[in-house]
């Protein structure tokens, strides 16, 4: 029996789900052929086959036949089901997806929108098919350049998808069926794609990873959906900057797709395209060129020349060709991309603008000025058109002008009301006392213009606007027994997007001198948004002003600006009686807010000033604490003078501390430029607040104030004091996370200075325009290059804005404008500069973060203090005189001195010639090996830039601006810091401990004794146990281009068992000997000494004695080892140790009263015992005198002179003492020996440094 159409259809679906599209296509055509012949064209099953045929062809990348099948399925379903049916919606969706793949975006948008509307009506907004349609519409909007509509559609799709995923099974749920897992994997994949499109790359990465894990379980490695997940994972990893991971994921996707589809498939082309992007980012331009060519070739073959993705491949190819410096080919590729995009997407599409501008840059590079200008004009025109289209009308509508009107009425205890032009005043019964006289009340509506001075004078014109006349209730100051109610008619646009919380009501009372003091009564007001009425409850007649807040400014900040705001304080006096230790007592004044003083946690906190004073012996005897009478207004200062009985005075001044100063003091960053982004993250504020703060680019305090205003709005409902809450939120914050380093501050000040000059320009002048154009371009170019160097780019990075964009330091829009500015191609460079200044300043803040310089032992012999000080003075003088040539000369002198200090093989004459010819490049290249830390490497790159600028300096010295002088002065200062002698770059001491000696060690700074060419360092070892303490000491010395270990020497010698002579009776002339028995019966002899020559001599003596050939010096290896020191006391406490190293000596020297060097000390018992360590006297270069006596090196002794003076009554005693430290050991039959003692001026750092023994 043959197969039916349903059998073929089931097989087609089965193989489609497996990813075997070729087999699925075969069975789909069989099912379609049978259904057409048996059921006819107009049948639901025939439509289903056409639909499956279109989906399969689309998956195989054959879009044109797929579209024909989709359209045929749609026509049949419309005839059978009509417009409002799920099957019809499904066909509309498939048609839209295929049209999008073909680049027909307008048609795709129409089809996708129809599908979305049907699904919303039939399925609602909580179904996965609705989310699918929302995403399709969003993707098409994005391709059309309508990013706002795309974001809205993607946001709705994400909300639905996330809702559907709640409670969904995961890959680890073994009870879950395959169908549920398929749905879950697809939903996670869709969510990841949407999250990526919205820029939420971290969430997208997590979602796509989950989809990949489930699909691997369902389908295995070799499936198209698994490949889709791998590819999307790679795209997201690339967006996050994980280039290596992106490369791995994309290569896996490429391998699967090539295996499934072959070479000529759109998805294979996508993989090659992404591969080219990743390789380009890694700097592998040759590989990137091959990948982009492969992508272009496939897309031209499969999609045709007129397709957006083909244009993308042309564009990428042009970028890579530019990096490979093939500018002619780059121009051709960019031109082709621009023409395709203009034909397909129109002249006003962002990608068309991108292509046009990039093409202009390349043409400019080829000196084709006319073509370059035309391309850049076209790009600028597109950007201007988009800007104009997006510009919203920001004009605020004020109330129409009307004359001041009044009304009056007499009211008694029975109450009454008064109405005037829609405004109503109601006095309830009892508001006036029964025995009181009637009150003649008047209501006057005053023009807002007569009160605008109070908002303009206080800088509030952009923050608030009047939405009602100012109501003057008379008699001013009259107090009622009960609250009276005022109804105010508001003038608010019905289509305004303002919320009721934006309405602010102030109550103003008359004060002395004609001033009005305003207070916030918004909380006593009730707003009816439908009637546009505000009902205010008051007890005192005065003025009422109603505002609409246009920004996020706080109500209390408005009140603070428009009038005097009282700050209640508490003044505490504390007294300390110093008698009888001192003739005077002490008085302390503590000034704080009334709320803080009464906060229990503050009064008991050990860090509070009250607790600190009391712990120091002060007693609190008086507190002035009356908040209703003791007020300081705004920035007023409270000055207190205390006069003592002996005529002495104490003067103290106090004022209120605002939140900005509080935060700065809390973070210990007063007066510094700050990167406030970490603070917004710490306070968990939204991105909108960050963007608003960035716009306050002129002043960091204004940025901080904006951040704190938004934060404070979220604290309104909390009971805790704001400053206390703010302190708790930021108390563990690291100041280094927000502080900008000196170089960053310099760049920010330069940007602010230039932006202020441009912003303050009130007239048009083409000369000024030309001047500012050059200033902007040069400044941005130098700052961008320095930013790239700071994030470890090459000093000659060509396209710095793009580099910063790729590293997510600026957005793509900002990067494009910066490209235009630096190439002087912007249509309005001043306007573009002012637009990007806030974002460029923020990028500088994030890049130039304060950090400690890392010291690497690079072997640099720096310049000593007196030379460095002279260079600093000369460089400063050149900078103050704005003498750039003198500054260059001083830089060359610094480099010359460094080169001369570190030249080993080079001729000094060659270095001097470099300096005379201002060869900064040659000298910095000569010193390149010493620039090893990250900061030093950046200094090297800046010196290269400095060198490149010399030609311009010499050609036109007037071209050097003051900003450039500051830039190079900063480089000069960095060079001087680098050149300053630092002993840590040459020597590093190391102290190690044995496992049985648990101790705590502290070390002092490494120091250098220049007269004796000696390095030394103090160590303090805290001994906590009464056990033997043994340490290993070592010096790491950078010598002759290598780091060598200097401590002591050892040699291991194996003696055969055939040697039977007793070693115990043999004296070996080294400092320390260890003899052990091995398992084979031989003897292991270990020799220790601080001198290599001593061990060599010992080997020669042993060889002569035993005649054993293996004891030759050439056969035994003498190696460096730690110099072991042993504590001489078992007492507990802190032991002192000083390690010294004389330059180019063989060993280090130990100076301590608490430790003795095992490899140097002389032992009393010179008899060797098997398996026991013995210590022998250290030998000199000639170990024996002419009589055969053994003599210890006299350099181990030291003469120390001391002097003291004491007075006993009328007698003065002078004590002179000469101490010989160490001893001379002489052994042999005839021990008479005359020796010359070392000079008394020999210092401690010289002694014991293994100097050769000189016979008298």
UniProtKB/TrEMBL annotation:
The keyword Ligase does not apply. The keyword Repeat applies. Gene3D superfamilies: 2.60.220.30, Tetratricopeptide repeat domain (1.25.40.10). InterPro entries: TPR-like_helical_dom_sf (IPR011990), TPR_rpt (IPR019734). TPR repeats lie at residues 131-164, 185-218, 227-260. Keywords: Repeat, TPR repeat. This is Nephrocystin-3. The gene is nphp3.
């Amino acid at each position: 029996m043959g197969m039916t159409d349903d059998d073929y259809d089931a097989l087609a679906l089965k193989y489609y789900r497996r990813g075997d599209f070729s087999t699925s296509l075969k069975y789909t055509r069989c099912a379609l052929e049978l259904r057409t012949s048996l059921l006819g064209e107009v049948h639901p099953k025939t439509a289903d086959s056409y639909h499956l045929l279109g989906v399969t062809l689309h998956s195989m990348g054959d879009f044109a036949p797929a579209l024909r099948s989709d359209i045929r399925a749609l026509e049949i379903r419309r005839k059978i089901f009509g417009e409002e049916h799920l099957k019809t919606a499904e066909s509309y969706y498939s048609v839209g997806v295929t049209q999008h793949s073909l680049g027909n975006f307008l048609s795709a948008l129409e089809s996708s929108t129809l599908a979305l509307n049907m699904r919303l009506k039939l399925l609602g907004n909580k179904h996965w098919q609705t989310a699918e349609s929302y995403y399709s519409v969003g993707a098409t909007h994005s391709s059309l350049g309508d990013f706002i509509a795309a974001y809205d559609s993607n946001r709705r799709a994400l909300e639905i998808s996330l809702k559907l995923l709640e409670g969904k099974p995961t890959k680890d749920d073994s009870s879950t069926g395959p169908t549920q897992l398929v749905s879950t994997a697809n939903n996670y994949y869709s969510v990841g794609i949407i999250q990526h499109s919205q820029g939420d790359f971290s969430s997208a990465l997590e979602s796509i990873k989950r989809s990949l894990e489930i699909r691997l379980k369902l389908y295995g490695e070799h499936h198209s959906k698994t490949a889709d997940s791998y590819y999307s994972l790679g795209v997201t990893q690339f967006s996050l900057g994980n280039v290596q991971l992106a490369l791995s994921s994309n290569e896996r996707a490429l391998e699967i797709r090539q295996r499934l589809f072959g070479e000529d498939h759109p998805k294979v082309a996508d993989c090659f395209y992404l591969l080219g992007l990743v390789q380009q980012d890694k700097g592998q331009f040759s590989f990137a060129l091959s990948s982009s060519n492969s992508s272009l070739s496939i897309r031209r073959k499969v999609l045709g020349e007129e397709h957006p993705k083909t244009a993308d491949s042309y564009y990428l190819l042009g970028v890579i060709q530019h990096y490979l410096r093939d500018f002619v080919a780059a121009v051709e590729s960019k031109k082709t991309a621009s023409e395709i995009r203009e034909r397909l997407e129109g002249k006003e599409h962002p990608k068309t603008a991108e292509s046009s501008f990039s093409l202009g840059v390349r043409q400019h590079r080829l000196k084709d000025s006319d073509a370059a200008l035309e391309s850049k004009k076209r790009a600028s025109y597109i950007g201007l058109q988009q800007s104009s289209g997006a510009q919203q009308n920001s004009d605020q509508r004020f109330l129409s002008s009307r004359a001041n009107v009044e009304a009056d009425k007499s009211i008694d205890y029975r109450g009454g009301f008064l109405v005037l032009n829609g405004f109503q005043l109601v006095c309830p019964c009892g508001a006036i006392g029964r025995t009181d006289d009637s009150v003649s009340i008047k209501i006057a509506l005053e023009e807002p213009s007569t009160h605008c001075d109070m908002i303009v004078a206080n800088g509030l014109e952009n923050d608030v606007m009047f939405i009602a006349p100012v109501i003057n209730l008379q008699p001013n100051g009259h107090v009622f027994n009960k609250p009276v109610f005022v109804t105010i008619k508001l003038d608010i646009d019905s289509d305004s997007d303002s919320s009721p919380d934006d309405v602010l009501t102030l109550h103003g009372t008359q004060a002395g001198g004609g001033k009005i003091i305003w207070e916030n009564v918004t909380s006593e007001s009730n707003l009816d948004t439908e009637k546009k009425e505000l009902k205010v409850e008051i007890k005192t007649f005065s003025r009422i002003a109603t505002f609409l807040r246009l920004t996020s400014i706080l109500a209390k900040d408005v009140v603070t600006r428009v009038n005097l705001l009282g700050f209640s304080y508490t003044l505490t006096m504390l007294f300390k009686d110093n008698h009888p230790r001192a003739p005077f007592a002490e008085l302390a004044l503590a000034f704080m807010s009334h709320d803080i003083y009464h906060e229990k946690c503050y009064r008991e906190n050990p860090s509070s000033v009250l607790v600190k004073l009391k712990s120091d012996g002060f007693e609190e005897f008086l507190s002035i604490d009356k908040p209703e009478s003791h007020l300081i207004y705004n920035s007023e200062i409270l000055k207190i003078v205390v006069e003592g009985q002996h005529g002495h005075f104490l003067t103290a001044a106090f004022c209120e501390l605002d939140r900005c100063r509080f935060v700065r003091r809390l973070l210990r960053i007063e007066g510094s430029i700050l990167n406030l982004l970490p603070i917004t993250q710490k306070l968990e504020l939204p991105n909108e607040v960050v963007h608003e703060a960035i716009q306050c680019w002129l002043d960091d305090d204004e940025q901080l104030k904006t951040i704190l205003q938004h934060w404070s709005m979220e604290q309104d409902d909390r009971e805790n004091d704001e400053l206390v809450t703010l302190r708790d939120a930021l108390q563990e914050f690291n100041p280094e996370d927000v502080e900008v380093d000196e170089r960053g501050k310099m760049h920010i000040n330069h940007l602010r200075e230039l932006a202020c000059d441009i912003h303050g320009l009130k007239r048009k002048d083409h000369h000024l325009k030309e001047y500012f154009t050059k200033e902007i371009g040069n400044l941005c170019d130098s700052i961008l290059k320095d930013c790239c160097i700071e994030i470890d780019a090459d000093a000659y990075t060509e396209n710095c804005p793009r580099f910063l964009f790729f590293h997510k330091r600026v957005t793509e829009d900002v990067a494009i404008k910066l490209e235009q500015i630096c190439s002087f191609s912007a249509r309005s460079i001043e306007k573009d500069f002012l637009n990007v200044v806030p974002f460029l300043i923020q990028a500088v803040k994030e890049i130039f973060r304060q950090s400690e310089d890392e010291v690497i032992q690079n072997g640099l012999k720096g310049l000593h203090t007196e030379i460095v000080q002279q260079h600093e003075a000369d460089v400063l003088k050149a900078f103050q005189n704005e003498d750039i040539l003198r500054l260059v000369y001083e830089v060359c002198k610094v480099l010359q001195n460094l080169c001369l200090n570190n030249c080993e093989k080079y001729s000094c004459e060659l270095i001097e010639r470099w300096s005379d010819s201002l060869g900064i490049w040659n000298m910095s290249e000569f010193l390149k090996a010493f620039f090893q830390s990250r900061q030093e490497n950046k200094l090297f790159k800046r010196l290269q830039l400095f060198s490149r600028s010399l030609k311009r300096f010499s050609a036109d010295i007037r071209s050097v601006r003051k900003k450039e002088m500051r830039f190079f002065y900063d480089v000069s200062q960095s060079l001087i810091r680098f050149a300053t002698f630092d002993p840590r770059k040459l020597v590093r001491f190391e102290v190690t401990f044995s496992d049985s000696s648990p101790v705590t060690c502290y070390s002092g700074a490494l120091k250098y004794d220049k007269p004796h060419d000696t390095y030394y360092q103090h160590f303090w070892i805290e001994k906590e146990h009464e056990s033997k303490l043994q340490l290993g000491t070592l010096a790491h010395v950078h010598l002759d281009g290598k780091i060598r270990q200097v401590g002591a020497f050892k040699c291991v010698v194996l003696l055969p068992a055939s040697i039977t002579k007793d070693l115990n009776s043999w004296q070996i002339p080294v400092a320390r000997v260890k003899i052990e028995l091995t398992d084979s019966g031989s003897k292991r002899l270990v020799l220790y000494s601080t001198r290599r020559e001593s061990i060599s001599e010992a080997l020669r003596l042993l060889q002569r004695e035993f005649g054993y050939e293996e004891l030759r010096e050439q056969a035994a290896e003498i190696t460096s080892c730690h110099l072991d020191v042993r504590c001489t006391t078992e007492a507990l406490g802190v032991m002192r140790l000083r390690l010294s190293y004389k330059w180019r000596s063989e060993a280090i020297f130990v100076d301590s009263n608490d430790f003795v060097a095992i490899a140097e000390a002389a032992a009393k018992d010179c008899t060797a015992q098997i398996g026991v360590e013995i210590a022998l006297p250290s030998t000199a270069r000639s170990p024996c005198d002419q009589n055969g006596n053994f003599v210890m090196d006299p350099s181990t002794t030291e003469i120390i002179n001391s002097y003291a003076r004491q007075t006993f009554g009328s007698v003065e005693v002078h004590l002179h003492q000469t101490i010989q430290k160490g001893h001379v050991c002489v052994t042999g039959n005839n021990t008479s020996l005359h020796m010359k003692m070392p000079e008394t001026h020999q210092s401690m750092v010289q002694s014991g440094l293994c100097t050769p023994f000189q016979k008298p």
